[in-house]
Specification:
Order of helices and strands: EEEHEEHEHHHEHEHEEH
Number of helices: 8
CATH class: Alpha Beta
Structural class: alpha/beta
Strand content: 25-35%
CATH superfamily: P-loop containing nucleotide triphosphate hydrolases
Shape: globular
Bound molecules: adenosine-5'-diphosphate, magnesium ion
Distance between the termini: 30 Å
Helix content: 25-40%
CATH architecture: 3-Layer(aba) Sandwich
Largest sheet: 6 strands, mixed
Number of domains: 1
Length: 235
Amino acid sequence: MEKAVIDMKDVHKSYGIGEHQVNVLKGVSITVEQGEFVAILGPSGSGKTTLMNLIGLIDTIDSGYYFIDGLNIQDQSEKSYATIRNEKIGFIFQKFNLISKYTALYNVALPLLLRGESYKDARLKAAKTLERVGLEERMHHRPNQLSGGQQQRVAIARALVGDCPLILADEPTGALDQKTGSEVLAFFQELNAEGKTIVMITHDVKIAEKAKRVILVEDGLICEENRQLSNVLLK
Ligand code: ADP
Ligand code: MG
């Protein structure tokens, strides 16, 4: 068996207390092996963002267990989450989440600088990664000098630069026009073909179809898991 990048078992998550408590995730189990390209698909309100926040160590699980790349999250203090995130996960968000006052180059170098790499090394790797996403001529531009598609490519470069075992993308094409969105998805397929593990959250079946496997979330539960999306859609 391949090594699991995500191994989550019977995870529960609720918000609020007492009668105001909302049980958002009601026992979710997910395994993602190294080298997979998985879409987590579900309607609005089904718990996708909550799940993404748990996978991405932005929030903590209430119960169950979660191993990321072999590391048991329960054994880690919340203080160490930022370090684990930096080492294990490259994030891609719907709205890019670039730092507007920094150039593309510096935005991409940042995860390496946070890791303690020298400015020289970080800059070199960032420039190479921007080249990889086709933005070598834009590396000294700030986000507001770039198109949406270019900004998302900067964000993809930032997610790639640290060579993390997991790329986690939340509605990565949600703020892009259809053509640019298709380009981003084609690039994900290319990265996956090179061995990158990608988990992509989406509410759109057409986008989920681009992944190799689809996990369907409904009302806080995994209701279907299928290698073939057509099987899901036929039900
Ligand atoms: P999705 O991303 O699939 O639209 P979410 O994970 O954002 O779903 O939300 C799932 C459910 O959990 C929704 O009913 C939402 O109102 C509720 N929820 C999410 N976050 C909170 C929170 N911080 N406090 C209370 N309820 C929340
Ligand atoms: Mg959401």
